[in-house]
Structure formats: C-alpha cells, structure tokens
# Entry
Amino acid sequence: MQQIRIPRKGPSAAISAPRPSRDAAEAALVEHYPALVRLAHLVLPPSLGRQRRVLAAHAVVQRALPRGGPARAGALPRPRGPREEAHAWLRARVVTGALTARELRPAALALPRVTGLRLFPRAGGGDELALDRALAAVAPEVRAALALTLLEGLGPEETTALLAGAGVTAPDRALAAAARLRATVPGDPAALLRGPEFDPCTVHLRPTDLLRRRRRGRGAVLAAALLLAAAPAAGALWPDAPAAAPAGSVADPAPDPAADPAALLRADPERWADTSRVDFTAWPARGDRTRDTALLGRALTAWTGDGVRTETTPRTSAAPPAGPPALLYAGETDGAAVVLLHDGVRLARYTEPPAGAPVLVLARADDADVTTAASVVLARTGAGTRYLLAPWIAEAGVRDLAAPAAAARELAVAPDGVTTPVPAPPPAGPGGCGGTTVLQLRSSARIVEDHAFLVADLGGLGPAHLSWTPLPAPGVPSRQPREATGPQGLAAWARSGCLLGPLRDSGVRSVNRWEYAEQQLPERAGRALWVCARAETWEGTGRADVVLETPARAPGAVRPLLTVPDTAACGRFGQDVLAGGPWTSPSGARYLLAAGSRHVVGITAGGAVRARAQGRVLAARAPGAGAAVLDGRLADGGLLRGWTAAGG
# Structure
C-alpha cells in the first residue's frame, strides 16, 4: 500500500512569508476549505488511489496550520491586503505540502482514517475521464500550475513565484506544460475541474468487502493464538546460525521467481474501483483454477523456458518476464485449460487444449486504459469466441456494424467475467467484405458514468477500441475522438466497417474514423465526405486509410482511396492532412478531387493535372491518365505535401 508523508514545514528553498495570526489563518481555512482541499487533491499523486487521495487532500489542508513556532509558507507573489494574506499563506502551504508528499512507513502516517467505508468523488463522463487520465500522466508541479491558474485565478508571474517558493526547480516549464495540457484535453478544463468529479469534499460512500473483513478478523485472532502457543518451542527449534554446507558440496541454484506459482501477483478484487490506473494492473485473479499450482507452474514454465509453441503479435518480445507476473485468469474454457498472465507490458495466454500441444500467445498491452483493457480473447472455437471482460464492465452486448439501427444483442457473462461464445460473422458476399465481431461494453458507474464504447475483434488477444471524430461545424474548434455508440457514430462506422478486415493480426489497439472535410461534387452530383481512418498499434506505429464517401457508394463495398502505412498522420501528432484521387461523374467525365483538413487554406495540383483552388477543396477536370502532385498551403504559411491515389 502506498503511503505518504504530509510535511509540517515547507522546503528550505521556500521564500519566507509573513505568517498571519492563528485566528486569521483558521478563519481563512474554514472559509476556503473546499477550494483548498480541491487544490491539494489535484496536486497529489493519482497513484494513491481514490480513497487515500481524498483523505490525503484533507490531511494536507488540515495540517497547513502549524502547531507552533515559525513557519514558511512559500512565496506570496505580491503584497496583499489583510483579507487576502491569510488565504494566500494557506494556499502556498497547501501547494508545498501536496508537492512534497512522499512515501513513508505506515507507522509514521497521520491521516484522517475511515474504517469499513470507501470514499471517492462521483464518476464523470468521457471528458472528465480524459482530463483525469491527462492529469495522471503529468508531473505534480504541472497539475499544481494548472490548478493555480484555472481554479485560483493566479497569473503566470504569481504561479511561477508560488511554485518556486514551494521548491519547484523549473516553474516556467511547469507553467508551459500546464498550458499545453489545457489546450489538448477535450471540453473546458476549468469547468471540469470545478465539477463534482474533482471535488474531494463531495464523495460517495460504499462499504468495503464485508466478507473479506470478517475473514481477516478471524484470521488475525487465530494467528495471534498460534503465535502464543508456538512461542515456548521457538527457541529450541530455531538454530543460532544456518549450518554450513559440507566441504565440496554445491548449493542448489536459486529458483527463478518468475517461474514460481507462489510468487504470482494477485490484485485486490476491489482495486479497479479505487485506483486512477484502470488497466490490466487492476484485474483480479479469476477462474476456478487460480489455486492449481501444477497448471500455473506449467504456464509459467512455458513463458520462462522452452518447448512450447509460442505465437506473438507483431513487434512483441518473446523474452521471459523480468519478475513474477500477475495472474488474471486460470480456468476451464470449452474443455481447455487457460491461464492469462500480465507482466506490466505484455499479456500471455497459455492454453492446454483437450487434444494437441499447449500454446503460448504473447501480445503487447502496455499503456492500456479503461477501453483497451476492457476485454481479452480467451478462446476461439467453432462455436465462436469467448471473452474475459474486465471487472469494471457492467453491461455487454454484440453489435452488427452493418446494421447500425438494430439494437445490440445482450451478451451473457458468467460471474468470473467469461462470456458465452460470440458466433463468427457471416462470410463476405460477392464484391463485399467480411464482417467483424463488435462488442458494445459499458463501464460501471463506480468509475465513470454513462460510458459505453465499442471494441472489435481483429484477431489479437485484446480487441481494438473503435472511436469516431465527426466533421466539425464551421467556426467550431476541432472535435476530439468520441465513442461511436450513438446513432451517428454507429451509422458512420457502418460505412467504414470494411476497413477493419485488412487490419487483422497486425497488433492494432484502436481505430478512429476521422471525418476531416466535405465537398460538393461537380455536376451537382451531391455531397462527398472525406474520411481518414487511423489504426494505432500497440508499439506506436499507425496506418491511415483515406476514403472518399460519395452518394453513389455501395454501403458494403467501400475501399480506401489510398493507404499510408507507418505514419503519424490523421492522429494526435499529425493533425494536418491533404489527399486526392480520381472520380468519375455520372456523365462519365473524369475529375481530380482533393480536400484538406481545417488548417489548409489553399491547394495546388501539378503533374498530370494542373489546377489551383482557394480553401480546403479542389475539383479539376482530368483529361487523361497520369500522376498528379498535390501541395497545400496552411494558415500559418507552412506547406503540406498531399497524398494522391494512383490514376489521379
């Protein structure tokens, strides 16, 4: 369990500030208590877990008042009136205390204590979840800078002075990182941080595991009794020193802890509901064979030794784990014994089939999240695919991407998280594409409210997360990827479902459909939509499929206009795109069409087609075959080389 120490004094680097009278400080603490606790809660490390972080935030604020003697509160950025001085002094003390919280032995911990209850702020929606994940990924001083500017209303000079007084070595960099974070997260960060999802003074109460508490209580009493009974004999049975090995003997080699079933890590069954890291590290050990040491030993030996057929997803290491992995599942699945392990970077699925040799499958799983760690494929048989769902999944259904208006079919889930078999989709018809199994999952309200999402089985251990970025309205800032479970998102993915087939067995973790431009077709042929579907792999590379969706397109036979492998385009780090390709009008005339994303303000075509257009779209007659070259002009004066499909 991670513990923290709440310092009573600021660091020696802090700048002395006049301490207000105790009465004034206490009055300011009472008046501003909710805001100060929210500030401490945002700065404290999310790795504490939700309950300990809430309690630690209250402890930081309550201990901001020293018990006596001179105290430092960090820097007060500018002279203040008497009414503001006490509040500013406390705020600097709170920031200093939250920034310098560090690990300590449990005996030295002094926090508010709650027995038998779990405390946590209410769960938020998708924007709150994205902001919480972004905050967890940055340093404490960056969270402090963001909170001071957005919640406390401090200017840049005041913020950097306060951070410097709290011991931050590079406050300017922390302030710049906070500004970048503010610009990249969805929604309004200031409004989100002021909401109940980030308020440690308004919390939900839930009981802890009552049965486990009762067992632990009985176990403690029994252990104490056994200890007292065994004490008189301990001196006679315990030698003064270990016996020396006989001369010439060779000691047995130390066993590999990674191959020892007794050393397997097992997460607390309730950890997923009390941590900011909602991923495979929060999965408990489930299944009816989690205590079968013989099976677990064979699975570990298969991973740490040789002699078992091993399959890996692209760019996944087959090396043994560096230490004892975590046990996620061990049980019987369709007559086969299955063990699922996680070493912090990879998933390992060991299968002993009813007939045949065992198989070990390894797949990357680092940096997973609430969606990409929501399900794992346990087995594929003739009856279909069985999944093991994360403990935070409250509802599960199966959806046909080609039928967006149809309701999701309910998927039965056993108490240990194993689903019933999901039948394989029907084969592709003439000129069409194969179907893809899609699960619609909903997270428990204990971690986030109203959060449903889609994952698609693309042949690996972990299904890929499907998201959707709709076309922004004119004058509206660019939109962030969103879940594709609403009517518009489902209709959009119904048009892009055929793009998923070629991605099978390529280690894809997520696919986002980005609608980046629209264009009125020549000869009044209707409206076309430009789409870039980006597939992200677990190792960081990406593939972009550009599609021109026209009114005459056959829904089941869409094919990409062009495919670009190993690119950052159409993603977070490649937000500018320009693409073009051939199009034949209903009259038979050939055109070169091109479109760019929102920062493109002009397009020039060269090569076989020479044309120029102001704005984000271009349509030019293409009298003959030949390659065209596209260049785009960006709003900031930069140039963007475009992609052109063959035959343009």
